[in-house]
Amino acid sequence: TAGKTITCKAAVAWEAGKELEVTDVTVDPPQKGEVRIKIVATALCHTDKFTLSGDDPEGLFPCILGHEAAGIVESVGEGVTSVRPGDHVIPCYQAFCGECKMCKSGKTNLCGSVRQWTGKGVMAADSKSRFKCRGQDIYHFMGTSTFSEYTVVHEVSVAKVNEKAALDKVCLLGCGVATGLGAVLNTAKVEKGSTAAVFGLGTVGLACVDGLKDAGARRIIGVDTDVGKHQRARDWGCTDVVNPADHDKPIQEVLVDMTMEDGFGGVDYSFECVGNVKVMRAALECTHKGWGQSVVIGVAGSGQEIATRPFQLVTGRVWRGTAFGGYRSRVDVPVLVERYMKGEFKVDEYVTHKLKLSEINQAFQLLKEGGCLRCVLYM
Ligand code: NAD
Ligand code: AHE
Ligand code: ZN
């Protein structure tokens, strides 16, 4: 198949808010600096649902969504040296080239090499798509487009991983699980003995909880409006779980009261894993005066803005955000896979449902119903 256009099944999102169509698409051969991957398994992340809803200002249609996957390299384009056909890989929506201003800074995991093209749904070599359906160009999504049997990605976005790792599990390290762990371990750098609050107890929030346990946090307060999420959060390691609806006071005041010690309340660290700007405010304001840090992980819709009294920052609280948990994709994802294989953190436990690519609309429905953490699709 190398060098030839492949016809395969993919889930095409024709329009915002509409069901996907699983149909035949063509996937062009990888050009210079590109890799064509046979996807083995892909999960759905809430960001896929968010973009499909039409709320993502970068959302382009028609497109092929999907960014939490694992697969096998089918062929490589000119000049590709870091992977070869047969390699087991995780496509990463955040690239790492190691050579751009951003990568060289050592201060961020955001790579500048291909982001301007991935945001426009095309490949960097020629600003074109490699997908067509019934003669029409279909946009790429997040530089990954994993809801397809085959996809083309930039070499700088491909992490080569241990071929003994189960691809239908490590796909979760392509987004949600890595993001939550990294938010705690890389972005916040939580110290042993810290107190923390996690808002939103889906996959990203639970991965924060797992990271907090790893970091040795002494108190982990989970917050979720869906009580169906509470017991699992305790099982993951939350010391307390709170439903905002059980309280008359704003949730930030509830958390400050819960953590009162020597006359001062507030958690050392908080993590927003919902994507709601009001929750982001509460997450900042529940942190401790003088040193509290709040990490925004959730993605909020077009036009949404965060607000707080500047006094919250003047008095020492820090508001920050994280993309992919601060991990430098190509470098760190293979290490995460090794650590997972040694049993250092949970991954399998987030897979609550398994379906086929052809059942993808049912999988999106599951995400809306709340009982689902991750649904893994087999191609
Ligand atoms: P999810 O839907 O599984 O989890 C969200 C949880 O928030 C649910 O359990 C829901 O019940 C809860 N929730 C809803 N409203 C709430 C409220 N007002 N207060 C408390 N809890 C509330 O989603 P997920 O896949 O875990 O993703 C979480 C968020 O993180 C999404 O916004 C997603 O787009 C974003 N995300 C960001 C990154 C990143 O790199 N920054 C990576 C992955 C996901
Ligand atoms: N496209 C949106 C923002 C979406 C967003 O913030 N995405 C997160 C990853 S979510 C993964 O599930 C991210 O890492 N962003 C950094 C980046 O480079 O995209 C918008 O508002 O335009
Ligand atoms: Zn995601």
UniProtKB/TrEMBL annotation:
Its EC number is 1.1.1.284. It holds the Pfam family ADH_zinc_N. It catalyses: S-(hydroxymethyl)glutathione + NADP(+) = S-formylglutathione + NADPH + H(+); S-(hydroxymethyl)glutathione + NAD(+) = S-formylglutathione + NADH + H(+); a primary alcohol + NAD(+) = an aldehyde + NADH + H(+); a secondary alcohol + NAD(+) = a ketone + NADH + H(+). Keywords: Metal-binding, NAD, Oxidoreductase, Zinc. It comes from the Eukaryota. InterPro entries: ADH-like_C (IPR013149), ADH-like_N (IPR013154), ADH_3 (IPR014183), ADH_Zn_CS (IPR002328), GroES-like_sf (IPR011032), NAD(P)-bd_dom_sf (IPR036291). One of its GO terms (biological process) is formaldehyde catabolic process. GO terms for molecular function: alcohol dehydrogenase (NAD+) activity; S-(hydroxymethyl)glutathione dehydrogenase [NAD(P)+] activity; zinc ion binding. Residues 204-328 form the Alcohol dehydrogenase-like C-terminal domain. It is an enzyme of class 1 (oxidoreductase). GO terms for cellular component: cytosol. Signal peptide: none annotated. The keyword NAD applies. Residues 32-162 form the Alcohol dehydrogenase-like N-terminal domain. Its cofactor is Zn(2+). Belongs to the zinc-containing alcohol dehydrogenase family. Class-III subfamily. This is S-(hydroxymethyl)glutathione dehydrogenase. It comes from [Myrmecia] bisecta.
